[in-house]
Amino acid sequence: MNKLRFLSVLLVFFVQQCFAQTFNIKDYGAIADGKTVNTAALQNAVDACSANGGGMVYVPAGTFVTGTFHLKSNINLYLENGAVLKGSPDLKDYVSYTMPVYGLNYYGMLYTTDAENVSITGAGTIDGNNPVFHDFTKAKKIDAKSSSLTRQKDNFRHVESGIGDGPVVPNKDRPHQMVIFSNCKNVHMRDVSLINSPFWTLHFADCDAVNVSGIRLWSGLLVPNADGIDVTSCSNVVIDNCDIRAGDDAIAIVGYDHHFEIPGFKGLKHVSENIIVSNCNLQSNSSGIRIGFLDQNTVRNVHVSHTNITNSSRGIGIFLRDEGSLENITFSDMHIETYLHTGDWWGNGEPIHISAVRGKEHVKLGTIRNIEFNNISCTGENGMLIYGSAESVIQDVRFNNVSFQLKNSKLNDVAGGNIDMRGGLAPKDQLFASDIPGLMAHFVAGLSINNFRLSWDNSITQPYFTSGIAADHFKDLYISGFKGSAAPQNTKAAILSLSNGIGVTTDIKSIAQTNVIGFKALK
After folding, report:
1. Helix, strand or coil for residue 26?
2. Calpha distance 462→316 (Å, rounded)
């Protein structure tokens, strides 16, 4: 951790001291009329700066329309207060590329690769202009096949009129990542605003020594795939004091070596490790923080603290679907608020979700291990979930001083009583109806729960809400200092429901158990 703090300080010093030369984009023909396409002027300013050994590319106040341009080593792109770099509405202004499977596609506004000591700072704005690439009058609906195993079937997340929570429908073509750094070292972003991204907003792929501080990132809560910050197979990353509101995941930390032919991936063999997120405010119609998914590379040593996640479909999501393992991850001193949503967003109101199921054929699944939650307060409209599988048992998960209020939802009739495991290969590991305890643990070894407080809204009447904690196919379960109950309407449910497990130590008295070996009662 000290190394990461040092890198943060070093990057700030680098930005402040090393950019003595200034290259004003207006001197290279840029026009701030909100109409003229300034891609060439911006690139010429960058190239001149690079040819002179580096410095500052200065964007003054005004709106400068642009397509794709590229930063280079030893350059600080500085956006003055009132400066706006706005994405062109014309796809012809973006660099195109052809994907073997998905065909013609487009880079976003800023694509920087193979660079060192590069930064974007200042109080200005990068605006991806997403309204021109989406139909905001239509919402993308979940298809009948995906919802066939849910409690509501075809009525799952139905909206009577309007677009509800979205997501809106994208045009056939749109620019991809708005700002991407690929295979870069010593990257710094500070104070800028990133808004209205048509796709992922800020992406770091195969980078080392990254610092993102004090940015405002509002990609658009209705826009599909409009992630906030994506960290892919990177090391030594600090994200702090950021305000992120994203349609898709607010922060995603993953270990992809490739991902659906999206640019910036080069068969990466780089572990994602040593990543700090602190003092951020996050909102998402998917996950506030997502770690993992179809990861080929391991993700490890991730530490999230003093961060709030509000009005999100899912709070913390840890997903294993491929061979890369997810390990040594801590969450501390956080507040999380989650809700049921309409529309085709992933997540279903759970404040904490950990799952490990097969998402790809012919690979040996990795393992989720050593996950810790300390001093977390949550409200949510669905239960917490720890859901492993026979081929990838989740290992060593600890809850210390966690409080959770399970709230009634106005959307229970159209969305409640389901688990969202999408990304799983088998239909049974995607969207399906389920009983909902306060905390569900399935195929877990070494689950420790200390001082967990669970409460339920008294207005909850749905029969699918059940026990306080339900665990099955487990080993070495420890529960101490639990305060809570089963769902208020379910008078027959025990506080703790256990089945098919080995080794239980608990001070809970109200227990229903089937096929459990090795029980020890705490006084």
Report:
1. helix
2. 25
Helical residues (DSSP H) of 241-342, grouped into ranges:
none
- Quote the CA–CA distance of 195 and 279 in Å, as a whole number: 20
Contact 251, 289 (CB under 8 A): yes
**DSSP state for residue 407 in the 8-state scheme:** P
Structural tokens at position 436: 């909902």
Structure tokens that stand for 144 in this block: 């009948």
pLDDT tens digits, 307-332: 999 999 999 999 999 999 999 999 99
CA-to-CA distance for 236 and 5, rounded, in angstroms?
Answer: 10
Residue 137 makes CB contacts below 8 A (sequence gap 6+) with 163, 168
How far apart, in whole angstroms, are the C-alpha atoms of residue 207 and residue 231? 9
Amino acid letter, residue 241 = N
Q: What is the pLDDT of residues 124-167, one digit of tens each?
A: 999 999 999 999 999 998 989 999 999 999 999 999 899 999 99
The confidence band for 17, taking pLDDT boundaries of 50, 70 and 90, is very low
The DSSP line for 470-510 is EEEEEEEEEEES-B--S-TT-TT--SEEEEEEEEEEE----
Looking only at Cα atoms, what is the longest distance across the chain? 77
**Residue 161, token pair as written in the block:** 């009129």
Q: Which helix (H) or strand (E) holds 372?
A: strand 368-380
- Containing H/E element for 156? none
- Nearest Cα residue to 440 out of 418, 472, 405, 463: 472
Bridge partners, residue 135, by sequence: 169
C-alpha 325/C-alpha 315 separation (Å) is 21
Residue 424: phi and psi, rounded to 5, are -75, 150
Contact (CB, 8 A) for 469 and 496: yes
Alpha-carbon torsion (105, 64, 77, 250), positive or negative? negative
Mean pLDDT of 470-485: 98
* Structure-token pair, residue 177: 């990542």
